[in-house]
Amino acid sequence: MGQDTTDAGTGAITIRRGVPAGAERVAAELYWDAFGRKLGPALNPPDKAVPFLAAHLNSDRAVCALLDGRLIALAGYQLGGRGLTGGSALDVLRAYGRLRGLPRLLLLSLFERRPAPGQLVMDGIAVDAGLRGRGVGSLLLAEVAAIAEEQSCRKIKLDVIDTNPRAWGPVREARLHRRTDRAHALSARALGVRSGDHDASHRHDEKERTTVSTETDQVEVPTRMLVHALIREDGTVDADELYTVANTLGMSDQQVRLCIKRLVNEGQFTHEGRGRKAQLRATADTTRALASNAEFVRHAFRQDAGLTPWDGVWHVAAFAVPESARTTRDALRETLLRLGGAPLQGGLYVSANAWEPYLDEAAHRLGARDALTLLTTTDLRRGDAQGPFELARQLWPLQEIADRYHRLGRIARPRLARLADPAGIDVSALLTIAVELAAELTRAMEPDPLLPPQLLPRPWPGTQARELVARCWAALHDRAGADARPVLFHAYADVARETADRTAG
Predict the structure, then answer these.
(1) What is the pLDDT of residue 292?
(2) Which end of the chain has fewer beta carbons closer than 10 Å to its terminal beta carbon, N or C?
(3) Which residues of the chain have pLDDT under 50?
(4) Is the peptide bond before 309 cis (omega within 30 degrees of 0)?
(5) What is the structure's pLDDT at 254?
């Protein structure tokens, strides 16, 4: 059982798996309150529906939120052919009679959903009416994402009723994207990016992304990424420059002010001055995180150049952290995923890269070194898949990653052409291009485990896309004045030039 620090007015909210014994009736009432309008035609009247749901609840197919020991919310999911709500056809006929039960069975059959391969289907989220809008749904979704990861599910599908607009809050925070068929998928892999922002407040900030329509493709730029991208080589961010670029990207001043406030409260920046005359200064932790990001990017470019051939060794990590240390467990899991690990089964992950130094550092920092086991092997099999290429295709979403790199290429090409134009480009436009490229590169590399070229399809779109981005960075570095050059340009200038020189050669 894990405890969250969310304060609902009287105490901390506790998240647990499974409906507590004796709370089945409360769970059924919560579920009916949330979905009675949808289920009503099949299960009405309520005084019959709620007891039916309570009697046939699969308690082990729920994640619950408790406040002072009281059940206040739950999220259901399907696993092994069972979901939160059960009951056979015979149960329905017994409860409603044969004459009225048969049409109800037909209606209930319309609600059945079968998961696609690698997908965890949710049975909805129900939160006590008096506690909605306080982040409880987000806590439940986080635990469901952990379950999906343990079951090697890369996506979560959740249906949200259009008549319940408040339900969209936790869905947006979980980075679900609305689709016309009302189905929504959450990638469990995308729990962290290599920009160094791996905390919950970063995921919360994702809802403040701005969509920019330029150069034929839309670019989504998180406000927080914009601030990081404009850090100068002396560690400062000029507020006037920040607001100017933000306005160009379609962000409001209020959006930027709120982001700055959060970053300062988190200890990522210090703040001096007011308004557009202010100056932000990155803390040591922030600059260190940016350097780590650049290290991953450099490794990717070296792979593209064939400078880091694979030695045929798989790097395996296993961990066992008790539920009482849920925060540590989740942080360790996020580190494994962020480093490109793929789940083999519950608590067991694999990578094709030597990730041991990074895992050792993370485990030491989290106080979990005794819970982490590391090993290497050249003989890895999973089911019928045993060849390295076949294993890579089974373990990682290579097609999804390839699609992201195709998009990155489409974003980079027109910007490279613009940078090659002899006509002048002002500093604001240069910074805008840099931020857009940084946003799209992060988006493309977010799920990329950086597999060695020997394990990837040929040709691999990531190689070409990164080459285009490198050429853009080199052009940006040349055009930007030394005084106006963000650390983004400095961090990638060397690798960009190396790549551009190899391409030219």
Answers:
(1) 66
(2) C
(3) 1-10, 162-216
(4) no
(5) 87
Q: What is the pLDDT of residue 188?
A: 26
d(CA 74, CA 56): 16
Length of the chain: 505
Neighbour order of strands in the sheet with 372-377: 342-345, 348-351, 314-319, 372-377
Tokens 């409001």 belong to residue: 252
Residue 492 DSSP SS3 = helix
**3-class DSSP string for 362-376:** HHHHHCCHHHEEEEE
Q: Backbone phi, then psi, for 61, in 5-degree steps?
A: -115, 40
| Cα–Cα dist 149/448, whole Å | 16
Which burial class, exposed, middle or buried, applies to 128 when counting CB atoms under 10 A from its CB (0-12, 13-18, 19+)?
Answer: buried
Hey, what are 296's tokens? 């991953």
User: What spatial distance separates the first Cα and last Cα of the chain, rounded to whole Å?
Assistant: 58
DSSP conformational letter for 208: G
Tens of pLDDT, residue by residue over 51-68, are 999 988 889 999 999 988
* DSSP three-state, residue 237: strand
For residue 313, the model assigns a pLDDT of: 96
* Tokens representing residue 306 in the block: 């064939």
How much is the pLDDT for 19? 93
What amino acid occupies position 51?
P
- Element containing residue 38 per DSSP (H, E): helix 24-43
Supply the pLDDT for residue 28: 93
Which residue carries 């379609």 as its tokens? 250
Quote the strand ranges of 171-305, DSSP E. 185-187, 210-214, 217-221, 236-238, 269-272, 279-282
Strands (E), 335-418: 342-345, 348-351, 372-377
Give the Cα separation of 204 and 29 in Å (integer).
Answer: 30
